[in-house]
Sequence to fold (375 residues):
Amino acid sequence: MQFRDLAKQYQVLKNDIDNAMLSVASGAHYIMGPQVKELEQELAAYTGVKHCLTCANGTDALTLALKAFGIGQGDAVFVPDFTFFASAEVVALEGATPIFVDVDDTTFNIDVVSLEKAIQQTLSEGRLTPKVIVAVDLFGLPANYPLVKAVAQKYNLLILEDGAQGFGGSINGQKACSFGDIATTSFFPAKPLGCYGDGGAVFTNNDEWAQLMNSYRVHGKGTDKYDNVRIGLNSRLDTMQAAILQVKLRAFDKEVESVNKVARQYTALLKDSVKTPVIPENFGSSWAQYTIQLPTEAKRNALQAALKGAGIPSMVYYPKPMHLQTAFANLQSSIFNLQSPTAERLCSTVLSLPMHPYLESSDIEQICSTLIASL
Fold:
C-alpha cells in the first residue's frame, strides 16, 4: 500500500503525460518553453487571479512574495507554529523575524485570537514592525481568510497565502491561492497538484508585484535577462514540468472529488474511535493529508507501529513546532514568551493516513479496521 500512489496516477494519465513529455523533447525548448506560459495562464484562470508566475519550487515562491513585499530586517512576519519549516525559513532568509502563532485544534490552521495577541505584543514591545501574516492552507484546507483579513485590515498588514498544500481548496466557491495579497503554491510530487520534480508558483492581482516577481525569478532582470536591475534568484519552472502539470490540471477537479470521497469514507468509519479532521461549513479541502488526532503521544506511536506491522504507511506531520526548531532556538526568547500549547500538543498526537485519489474502498476499510483493532 502506498501513502500517496503516484505510480497509479501515472498509469491513469500515462498516454497524455507521455505525449506531453515527448512534445517537450521534440520541441527542445527546455527552459521557459511555450508550455510554461500556457500553464501560467491556465493556473490563473483556475484560481481566478490576474497573474500567475511559476518558479522552481514552493520555497522560492514564498521568497519571491516576500521580496515583492519589500520585507527585510526589522520587520515582523506572523507564521503558524504548526507548519512546514519553509513557511518561516524564508522570513529569516530575508532578514526579517518570524513570530510564531498558535493554531486551531480542529482545522490545524492559524488561530486568529493568538494571531492578534502576537501582533499586539509585537507592537507593545516596539522593536519590530508588523508587516505580513503568513496564512498556511494546511493539509488542503484554506485558512479562515474572512477572519484573517479582518485582523490584517485592523493592523494594516499584508497577507501571504502559503497554499503549498492548499491548491484546490475553497471557501464559498472561491479557490485557494486567491485569498492572499500574494499567494503561493508548491508542485512537489506529493502535493495535491504535483509535478515530477520540484516546482512552484505565485499568484497576485497586483500588477507591480507581478512585475517584480517576474524580475526576481530570473536574476533580477530588467528589459532582458542580461539587463540586471536588482539581485534576484534563478528560479524557473522547467518546461517538462509545466507540460506534465498541464495534463494533471485537466484531471485535477476529478481527483479532488475523489479524495473528498475518500475522506468521507474515512470519517464515517473512524469518527467514533479517533478525532477526525473538520471541514468548516462552506469550506472545501483538496486533502493533501487526512490527519487524525490521538489522545496521547504514546497511543499515537503505538498506533503507527501497529499500522506499519500491517503494511500500512502513515506519517507524522509535524513532529516539532516551529518555535522548537534548532534554527530558531535563540529567536523567540529574545522577543517575548508566546505560548503555542495547541501546536505542541498536535505535534505529539497527530497521524496522517494514506490519502490519494486512487485509494480503493477496500484499502480504506483495511486501514480503518486495523486502526480500530489496534486502539
Notes: The mean pLDDT is 96. The longest helix spans residues 239-270.
